[in-house]
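Now for one record:
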Amino acid sequence: MNDTHHQLDKLFVTARAVPTDTSRIEFGFETRLLARIRAIKEDEFPWLAVTRRLLPIFAAIVVALGTWHFAESGADDTDLYAAVTAHSDEALLYAALTGE
């Protein structure tokens, strides 16, 4: 057993002493990597990238329109609940029953 262990250690030392040739693996690594990244990006839906870039602009437009609407609407529509329920059937029934 000890002799087998000694032979195995000798084989490992010999294997470590021989330099490994990685030139085949290294050849064109960057090209292969970039090709794989491009293939992954091409699989994505192209509108998704456009949407991600335009999302802040659309959000700013929505905020600006909301601000403009509430600034132009006057003092009567400051109550959001009243503005939302102003023309609903329940609000009209409530107003008719309570006399408001």
